[in-house]
Design a protein that fits this description.
The chain is mostly helical. The protein is 68% helix and 0% strand.
């Protein structure tokens, strides 16, 4: 039994919201900047792929992937 599209979309949206909040808190950027950074990242692309299971990880883990991507240009360094 797989996850429904509605549940998947909800989990992605909640994780994205939490990661954006972490960007605002830790990097001191605006909400718009945080969302732009996230939505234009490899990390977000991976979150949209149910096969990656990134949508199922904690927001702090996803944030760490995004931080790595921001610093190195690649989600996993």
């Amino acid at each position: 039994m797989g996850i429904s599209n509605a549940d998947f979309n909800y989990m992605v949206e909640c994780t994205a919201r939490d990661v954006a909040e972490l960007l605002v808190e830790r990097r001191g950027v605006s909400v718009a900047e945080a969302l732009d950074t996230l939505y234009n990242s490899q990390t977000y692309e991976a979150m949209l792929n149910p096969q990656s299971t990134l949508y199922f990880q904690s927001p702090r883990y996803v944030y760490s992937c995004l931080e790595t991507e921001i610093k190195s240009g690649n989600m996993f360094g």
